[in-house]
Automatic annotation (TrEMBL):
InterPro entries: AceGlu_kinase-like_sf, AcgluKinase_fam, ArgB, Asp/Glu/Uridylate_kinase, Glu/AcGlu_kinase, NAGK-C. One of its GO terms (cellular component) is cytoplasm. It catalyses: N-acetyl-L-glutamate + ATP = N-acetyl-L-glutamyl 5-phosphate + ADP. HAMAP family: ArgB (MF_00082). The record marks 34, 252 as: Transition state stabilizer. CDD domains: AAK_NAGK-C (cd04250). The gene is argB. It comes from Streptomyces katrae. This is Acetylglutamate kinase. GO terms for biological process: L-arginine biosynthetic process via ornithine. Catalyzes the ATP-dependent phosphorylation of N-acetyl-L-glutamate. Its EC number is 2.7.2.8. Belongs to the acetylglutamate kinase family. ArgB subfamily. Pathway: Amino-acid biosynthesis; L-arginine biosynthesis; N(2)-acetyl-L-ornithine from L-glutamate: step 2/4.
Length: 316
């Protein structure tokens, strides 16, 4: 009887052992996770996301959550009879819309995530980029067909102050950050795309990795004609691809590029519809989604394993 019990438990031990080199490698490291609006509308997935983030924290990593809420903002704008329009992939944000963006992100989405995480203990603390000058911005005017266009209170990040986040991490907390910035030039606030905010924070925090959860498997090579996912690419390869990308993938991949160019060793786009996608990515040898890597240094060995980020000694 006891021998049979041992036998059935063996696969569990193997799973834990597979995680060991990854646990060792990531111990104490900051991981910035962007939780996307579309990946966060399913209750079970949200609960699994919270479990994964708490698991990372208890396994010795230092997760920082940056969240979006595009679908929730869209729904609230519709309720209030306000139009929801995007230009250059960014929401046109009138002062009235800004009030709603702020209320939905900081008052609803962030509160809900903090609540889910804190079901596991007194861990998560919510804040927005306004707090303690975490994210400062000026007005962003995207260039559309050669002209700079005014899209309202949409911000371009000018500086990041990581002090408040670092204090929370040092206290063992999980910061949960809404993508709103304080203004550098007036007393108001700016709406920031959450992928852009997550990437800027990952670079400023010196994160080990940026993980962007979304509602597709990763970056498709020829979207929407094929579902072939690009499993990894270098920043130079990504830079060449950027002009061909459309809609929500643009800020995501620009964010990954910015983070890796800013010194973050890897940035990944993951399928947030897969339960526990974060754990699969961080603690298993296979990995999923799309990984962005720095360009190889001249003369350096090319990565030989399936996971170029594999821990020293190789994942078995
Ligand atoms: N090359 C591509 N690969 C994958 N998805 C793409 C690509 N180009 C555009 N997309 C679109 O980008 C969407 C993801 O962006 P978005 O909807 O803003 O996500 P989120 O709400 O998670 O921030 C996908 O659902 C897909 O419709
Ligand atoms: C300027 C801008 O477009 N801001 C975004 C902020 C939220 C966001 O990015 O949410 P997702 O990650 O769910 O798309 C917006 O208003 O929708």
């Amino acid at each position: 009887m006891s021998a049979a019990r041992k036998h059935t438990a063996l696969p569990k031990a193997q799973i834990l052992i597979e995680a060991l080199p990854w646990l060792t490698r990531h111990n104490g490291k900051i991981v910035v996770i962007k939780f996307g609006g579309n990946a966060m509308i399913d209750e079970d997935l949200k609960a699994a996301f919270a479990q994964d983030v708490v698991f990372l924290r208890q396994a010795g990593l230092r997760p920082v959550v940056v969240h979006g809420g595009g679908p929730q903002i869209k729904a609230q704008l519709a309720k209030e009879g306000l139009v929801s329009e995007f230009k250059a992939g960014l929401r046109v944000t009138t002062p009235e819309a800004m009030d709603i963006v702020r209320m939905v992100l900081a008052g609803q989405v962030q509160r809900e995530l903090v609540g889910l995480l804190n079901q596991h203990g007194p861990l998560a603390v919510g804040m927005t980029g306004e707090d303690a000058h975490t994210i400062t911005a000026t007005q962003h005017k995207p260039e559309i067909e050669g002209e700079l266009v005014d899209i309202g209170r949409v911000g371009e990040i000018t500086s990041i102050d990581t002090g408040a986040i670092e204090a929370l991490l040092a206290d063992g907390r999980i910061p949960v950050i809404s993508s709103i910035a304080r203004s550098a030039d007036d007393g108001h606030v700016y709406n920031i795309n959450a992928d852009t905010a997550a990437a800027a924070l990952a670079a400023a925090l010196g994160a080990e990795t940026l993980m962007v959860l979304t509602d597709v498997e990763g970056l498709y090579a020829d979207w929407p004609n094929s579902d072939e996912v690009i499993s990894r690419l270098t920043v130079s390869e990504l830079e060449k691809l950027l002009p061909e990308l459309s809609s929500g993938m643009v800020p995501k991949m620009e964010g990954c590029l910015h983070a890796v160019r800013g010194g973050v060793p890897t940035a990944r786009v993951l399928d947030g519809r897969v339960p526990h996608s974060i754990l699969l990515e961080i603690f298993t040898d296979q990995g999923i989604g799309t990984m962005v890597l720095p360009d190889p240094q001249p003369g350096a060995d090319q990565p030989g394993t399936d996971r170029p980020d594999a821990p020293q000694g190789g994942a078995q």
